[in-house]
């Protein structure tokens, strides 16, 4: 029986089993790439890929963020199996951003492998959380894979964002929430919208990604900073969601003139939405811990439910998570 080997390279993982080769978020010029989602750390060098398996929403968000797919594409549908040379692949919702996938790979005559990509097991307004499935081998992300990372209940985080927006607007200022353009920006728009707070989106890429969300039924309503109405809305009292305050400021100046832009900029209160905000030192009081990843207890619980014979952890906290999984009785190796 061939042995399974996994190798961390170029921000992705090369899986080899006999003649079978898969690039897990790794562009392979002569093989197949399983693309979990379109965040930039997962699409490094993707133009070099020959054949990509990804959901339609992942390809659309990749394009919305300026990517040019030039590969043979097999569309993945969550829950539907794809037969491939030497393996049966089942993409599953990873709950991280729209269309994001985990991949369950059943190698012919060999082990089953679950690659999580980035995942979040908690339901949010616009995403459904990842659900574990059993596998012989687990390849898990470990972004927050250290015990200090325990996120508050998501509803608490949502309440904090809405309260912050309301209080800032009531004091005559404009709350500007900075976050990733794919995923958390759309979650934040949906959240503020559901609380009756108007949203100006601060970047074209947020608009483009939001229209992908709307294609799949999200019904996000917002005004682009690039439109004339944005100034009226900002003067009347609303929030901004941006992935780049610098680009938002440039757009304000270009569209609304330097004077109007300055009067808006003088009223901005900046907040950052990120799991790292929990550390206290990052972003100070201006950080709110909204994350699209599993926190430490969820990473441990998820791995426990998959119940693999061996787990491999990747990203920053891989050695720490691997050690804790080993202590919990799951043989574990950091991939670095
Ligand atoms: Zn991601
Ligand atoms: Zn990532």
Instruction: State the shape.
Output: globular
Percent range for β-strand residues: 25-35%
Radius of gyration computed on alpha carbons:
21 Å
How many domain units?
A: 2
- Topology-level CATH name of the largest domain: Metallo-beta-lactamase, Chain A
Structural class: alpha/beta
Give a verbal description of the structure:
With 336 residues, the protein is an alpha/beta fold. It has 2 domains: 4-148 and 293-334, Metallo-beta-lactamase, Chain A; 154-288, Rossmann fold, CATH 3.40.50. It has 9 helices and 19 strands. The chain has helices at residues 56-64, 154-170, 184-194, 204-215, 229-236, 245-256, 258-265, 296-306, 318-327, and strands at 4-9, 12-17, 20-24, 32-34, 51-55, 72-76, 82-84, 87-93, 101-107, 112-115, 137-141, 174-178, 199-201, 223-224, 239-242, 268-273, 287-288, 310-314, 331-334. The strands form 3 sheets. The protein has a 7-stranded mixed β-sheet, covered by helices on one side. A hairpin with a 4-residue loop joins strand 9 (101-107) and strand 10 (112-115). Helix 6 runs antiparallel to helix 7 (258-265). The longest helix is centred in the middle third of the chain and has 17 residues, at 154-170. It is globular. The model has no long low-confidence stretch (mean pLDDT 96). The protein binds zinc ion (2 copies). One zinc ion (ZN) binds next to loops.
Could you outline the blueprint of secondary structure elements for this entry?
Elements: E1 4-9, E2 12-17, E3 20-24, E4 32-34, E5 51-55, H1 56-64, E6 72-76, E7 82-84, E8 87-93, E9 101-107, E10 112-115, E11 137-141, H2 154-170, E12 174-178, H3 184-194, E13 199-201, H4 204-215, E14 223-224, H5 229-236, E15 239-242, H6 245-256, H7 258-265, E16 268-273, E17 287-288, H8 296-306, E18 310-314, H9 318-327, E19 331-334
Parallel strand pairs: 3-4, 4-5, 5-6, 10-11, 11-18, 12-15, 12-16, 13-14, 13-15, 16-17, 18-19
Antiparallel strand pairs: 1-2, 2-3, 7-8, 8-9, 9-10
